[in-house]
Amino acid sequence: MGQRALSALLISMLIFSFSPCSDGQQQCAFTGAGSAQVRAGYWFSLYSHDFPVSSIDASLYTHLYYYSLPLSYDEANAGVSVLPHDQLPLLGIFSNSLKSSSPSLRTLLSIATDDHQANDSNAAFSAMAADPVLRAAFINSTLELARANRFDGLDLAWQFPSSPSDMTNLGILLDEWRARIGEEARNSSSALLLTATVYFSNHLFDEATDNLDYPTDAISRNLDWINALCFGYHKNSNVTAHGAALFDKTSHFSTSYGITSWLDAGIPASKLVMGVPLQGRSWFLRNKIKNKAGDPVVAAGPRQKMSDRIGVMAYSEIEELMKDPRSGFVYDSQTVSSYLHSGDLWVSFDSPEVAEDKIRFAQHNTLLGYFLWPINFDDSNRTISKQASDAWLRNYDSSCYRDEDGFKQAPSPSVAPQEDAAAPLAAISGSAQRSAKIDSCHLALYLLLCFLFI
Q: pTM to 2 decimals?
């Protein structure tokens, strides 16, 4: 073998050993702080009567959230509280019960906006985050609650900050919370996880204040990961609309847009977890013959037993509706979404097929994981929960390999969820640009090798 050929062979071996052109070698994003991967679910204590803790199949998850403890503000005494006494029994059994069957499971306690008193609850968050004394009291009380009830972490589900000062104070709160967790960990076996449940995009479109962006530097610096609420896009609409579309060429309200906005804002993929809903949005059609997406509606759908909310259906209720031979099911491959129409009722929801496509999208973009919201709304067979977990583990095992340190690394991105959705995926996710960068680098190396052989 000639000297130049030998040199080329050695260079080739070095190239494929160290992969210097792969943009730092794109990771499977399963190596984030606190976990190798996240297959999470939110269990709503509000629906514990229909779906008790004992009904949870913990084997389908790596992390489970107790949702939630609302924050209340006592204006007279200038104090905050996160301890409703009526939830003490549930708090006491949640982690203990689940970990008895799944010791590796990690549980987190979510402190959230109270949906039934959203304005007052968000005002409490705003007041707490703006006051150093209240912040300290809030932080200390959350740590005490987590430790006393065997939780492995804490979650902030402020839905949502509504002013620039709220966002600034949120960043300060996260700095102080992380510092206190670090201090507390010196006297504990391990540090508590710290996550946040956030808007689907890093920019809030629904607020009156313009240019309202999350403090992404503080988020990256302090949180183990964020859970993006990638659903509920069209709550108030006079036409039928996809409530959790993966793609939407006509607006910013899509999961792909939201995930990309977080990535573009500087949140690492290894700290980003994508939400998949187990609830659907329903409407009454103006004309039951006109039952496609974008057709006129007269009102939100009926109040449902599971959610006790107008226009919100649990997946288990939607599944029962699908058994009616008069109903029609449509999978929309352009938006990667599904809907059901039955008479004058129209429901947008995530079918098992959509859920699996979204899992593939998350892995295509090397996200840390996914979460289901809420797991109480799955059917008795845990259809969506199993579909999502199986899809994640199947793709996780087949698309990655372990390096010498035991971490999983991803090769080039996988195929887009749907062939006809590949174009919007490439345009929105930025994966095409990353792939082009890698291909250009490989071409340059190939030309170098050819030169050495000459």
A: 0.83
